[in-house]
Design goal:
Elements (H helix, E strand, L loop, with lengths): L2 H9 L3 H23 L2 H18 L9 H17 L58 H7 L4 H12 L4 H8 L3 H18 L5 H8 L1 H16 L3 H5 L2 E8 L6 E3 L1 H11 L4 E8 L2 E9 L6 E12 L2 E9 H4 L16
Parallel strand pairs: 1-6
Antiparallel strand pairs: 1-2, 3-4, 4-5, 5-6
Helix pairs in contact: 1-2, 2-3, 2-4, 3-4, 6-7, 6-8, 7-8
């Protein structure tokens, strides 16, 4: 059934038609909320609020803008309301200086203060459009999402709507209740901030240069070294200035030798790893064993950042942060009476 027919039925109160109408946009809207909020959990809340709002308001949708534009306007405003209740989310490198003692890692910093990972199953339907500045996968990379959090909310939204989603200046201005000149001004300021904070090359560009087979071998070698508790083999896969961080712990290690000292502690217990993807980057689900290796429990999710055919960063999101990612269920159906 085409969009016009579904829209007509949804306006008449057909919730099944509404679900079918918004289904093509659900994953993209969730990714948009994640970019704005740097949290998959907060994105769930914002998306649910947005879909409830859209269901309640669909009867009055007058088609002065496209359905896509209307949904993104609702989702952006829902994310703004969620972000107003939260502090700015950060990575470990922005919270504390590099750790020099692997036995002093500090206490976990609890609460909604950390950039969170984004699992691969959320990305399967996201498009790659050569006409926009950042494609959908580049725009969920850890470095990009973390850099976005340094922008005021309105600049963040303007940049995402214009350069990730491809809306025009006029459409963006209408979505955010701004003038076109104000929208263009905010975009210029956002670009300048990101230029100072983003690496020279995206992970997608680096991964393409490395090639899928070489990346697979690199990750397999890292898994073998980790599971084998082989410090020298592990360190040999890192760039000289590699970094390892472990949110929600504030501690992070800067450089191969610093990481080497921490590995001696980390490898006191056995590990089992599963290769996956998060934030459009290779990632590992890490299961930590008891001393005798008789039992394993979720230790965390490690997102790998690559450079020059080696590993440049390991962002190890520890189990308290990621347990819900592996228990996530589908969002409940929106209701006008919710």
């Amino acid at each position: 059934m085409n969009e016009a027919s579904l829209l007509q039925r949804a306006r008449a109160g057909d919730d099944t038609a509404f679900e079918e109408l918004i289904a093509p946009y659900r994953a993209q809207l969730h990714a948009h909320c994640y970019r704005l909020l740097a949290s998959a959990h907060d994105a769930d809340d914002a998306l649910q609020e947005a879909l409830i709002g859209a269901w309640r308001g669909i009867e009055g949708f007058e088609e002065r803008s496209s359905l896509r534009g209307w949904l993104y306007r609702i989702a952006t405003n829902a994310a703004f309301r969620v972000s107003a209740k939260r502090p700015k989310r950060q990575l470990s490198l922005e919270v504390a200086p590099a750790c020099t003692d692997p036995d002093v890692l500090g206490d976990p910093i609890e609460g909604p203060v950390w950039v969170e990972p984004y699992l691969v199953d959320r990305l399967g339907t996201l498009s790659v459009d050569p006409a926009i500045t950042y494609d959908a996968r580049e725009a969920v990379e850890l470095a990009f999402v973390a850099a976005l959090q340094h922008l005021p909310a309105s600049q963040r939204a303007v940049l995402l709507l214009r350069e990730v989603l491809g809306f025009s200046a006029a459409e963006t201005a209408e979505s955010l209740d701004l003038t076109v000149p104000a929208t263009n001004s905010q975009l210029q300021r956002a670009r300048a901030t990101l230029a100072r904070r983003l690496p020279d090359r995206t992970q997608q560009a680096i991964r393409a240069e490395v090639g899928a087979e070489a990346e697979r071998r690199l990750v397999a070698d890292l898994v073998a070294a980790w599971e084998g508790r082989d410090v020298e083999a592990f360190v040999g896969l890192l760039v000289d200035d590699a970094r390892l961080s472990m949110p929600p712990l504030p501690a992070w290690f800067d450089g191969r030798e610093s990481v080497r000292r921490f590995l001696d502690r980390m490898f006191e217990t056995p590990w089992r790893l599963e290769v996956t993807s998060a934030n459009a980057q290779p990632a590992l689900v890490c299961w930590q064993g008891s001393d005798d290796g008789a039992a394993y429990q979720l230790g965390g999710l490690t997102v790998l950042t690559l450079r020059g055919g080696r590993v440049a960063a390991l962002t190890c999101f520890l189990a308290p942060m990621v347990e819900n990612l592996f228990l996530r269920t589908d969002e409940s159906e929106p209701s006008r009476d919710s």
